Amino acid sequence: MAKVPVQFTLNGSEKAEFIDSGTTLLNALRDKIGDTSPKGGCHQGTCGACSVIIDGELRLSCLTLAETCNGAAITTTSGLAEGGVLHPLQRAFLDAFATQCGFCTPGMIMAAKVLLDHTPNPSRDEVVEALSGNICRCTGYEPIIQAVLTAARANSQNAA
Amino acid sequence: MALALQTFATAKDANGALKAAGTRYLGGGTLVVRAANEGDVSVSGLVRSTDPALSAIDVGGGKVRIGASVTMAEIARHPELGALAKAARAVGGPAIRNMATVGGNLFAPAPYGDFAVALLALDAAVGTDDGERPIETFLAGRGDSRAIVTSVSLTLPRADSFRFLKVSRVKPKGVSVLSIAVVLEQAGDGTVSSARIALGCMADRPVRAKAAEKALIGRTLDPDGIAPALAAAGEGTAPITDPIASAWYRAEVLPVHLGRLLLGLA
Q: Where are the beta strands (DSSP E) in chain B?
């Protein structure tokens, strides 16, 4: 089958690849581009482990075809740390023991980042709602919710 | 197996390409890419359209026309579609709502398709290039539909006449045990003058509870008044059985949840 070109910005840098038509963004990111931070959990849109941010909106990369992302700006968890310094969400997840096996973590962090980008000081209910499409089988969610609330507080203190 | 995706500028051109065997329309991807990921080999090609008309929301004169590519998130945050927000937010989690489209929801098999349940109660018209059809007719024949849905149009309900309930075990986001949408008109004395009730998960697609609708006419919305409607709620339904609930369970709890919705307790 003929390859199709795709071109988009990934975490601020231009990427261009030839892929098989119909390749999911998840597979393009992991297998072609080498960004393995989005995880393939269920491939059905149920678990949220593959969540990425496309043009500011949370999307599931397992259900998105890469060729529909031409020209888009894509953010993944691997693009959050700057110069070896972790993003406040990553720091808070570590400090709060919000990762156990870690498989759901990149998706959780993407969902949390979109929330904090729009709602810098979310309520607990808003955090729960924002993470409602992401499944975690280890933590029981409480440390994750606390981590997001902690990161929000850290952000607002830095901004003050 | 790779899927060949063809993109067209207009829905009309995409309709032509959709005639090829094994070809499905790609909206948000939450149904058709999922099917391909699950190994559905009947899907060999995908067609989509980037026609801006498919993404438009036009509100005016108490009516709205929603393009088929409009997402649940866009409906939920639209300032003039507050009446539909609860039903749009009932679909999936945040990422799914950023992807799932109105057009796709019409094709979602139970237990999915909660928004289509609301559209059925609201008597929406489903638009294709061939014109508009009542949603009830459309849903009945949706398996044979080969024309791309371009829009849904409806009269916006008054806030107090439209009620929607999705019942799920996991909060805030879980798959439906069932969903119920009701449009009620009441006379000055409080009795019901017209009722339209749509149910999700009580068949493989959204269906109306016509016996319950009829039993509500002339009745008041109190426990005695709605009792005949609740007794008739399951008439003509064939609930699905899935890992969320059995058909038996869905049939047992339907009157309970319908009652709560009608009494304003849900």
A: 4-8, 23-25, 45-49, 57-60, 63-67, 125-128, 131-134, 151-155, 162-168, 176-186, 192-200, 207-208
